[in-house]
Backbone:
């Protein structure tokens, strides 16, 4: 049994090499996996399942091929693609996950998250997150014309980029106390998440027992990150190179 977990690809038309690398990853690495978890921010922006450009169609078709070949697919929302819905999931052959959720990997139960809800020190973002995850707010956005939604997504990305340049690094990272609280709440010793773009394996002690937090990295041109679980072996964080094909 092989399980793969990835996040933070931020796919968009301005980075076609990452898209090609991801499509190649689905055909090569993921094709041999039993399960693939997509833990958020797979897309740089998602304005609704009713708008599909060439990139979105390519990704959905590739995921469907993978699902049809027998790999189980799970998708968790990120802070960029929180409007991904059931139509996308049905077309891709994926199951939408709550954030957080528990999963059995090898011999242990682990907690999976996108990771943005752990960054409680960023009070401005946490207010936006609460609004953006509100079903009523989402319904209002999805009712807007597509062109208006495209402009809104562009504006939100610019605002986020500008705001992040003014914030201290520590504010945009996870809050340790929040990590411990959520792990304690779910009774786990391992947490896997993305979002912060700070790949690492953090070993610590939780209530007198060894614990770990595994952070997925974001994908860059020619480089990707995954957590790989082979059989009963513990989760392993891995950076890998992918070929950028013309």
Residues:
């Amino acid at each position: 049994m092989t399980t793969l977990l990835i996040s933070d690809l931020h796919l968009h038309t301005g980075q076609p090499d990452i898209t090609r690398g991801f499509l190649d990853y689905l055909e090569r690495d993921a094709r041999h996996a039993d399960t693939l978890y997509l833990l958020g921010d797979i897309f740089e922006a998602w304005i609704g399942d009713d708008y599909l450009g060439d990139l979105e169609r390519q990704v959905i078709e590739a995921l469907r091929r993978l699902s049809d070949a027998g790999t189980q697919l799970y998708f968790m929302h990120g802070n960029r693609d929180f409007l991904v819905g059931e139509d996308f999931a049905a077309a891709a052959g994926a199951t939408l996950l709550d954030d957080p959720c528990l999963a059995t990997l090898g011999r242990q139960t682990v907690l999976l998250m996108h990771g943005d809800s752990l960054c409680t020190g960023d009070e401005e973002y946490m207010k936006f997150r609460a609004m953006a995850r509100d079903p009523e707010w989402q319904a209002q956005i999805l009712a807007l014309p597509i062109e208006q939604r495209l402009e809104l997504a562009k504006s939100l990305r610019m605002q986020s980029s500008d705001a992040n340049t003014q914030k201290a690094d520590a504010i945009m990272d996870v809050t340790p106390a929040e990590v411990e609280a959520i792990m304690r709440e779910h009774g786990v010793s391992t947490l896997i998440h993305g979002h912060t773009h700070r790949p690492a394996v953090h070993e610590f002690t939780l209530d007198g027992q060894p614990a770990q937090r595994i952070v997925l990295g974001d994908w860059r041109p020619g480089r990707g990150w995954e957590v790989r679980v082979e059989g009963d072996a513990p989760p392993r964080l891995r950076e890998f190179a992918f070929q950028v094909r013309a």
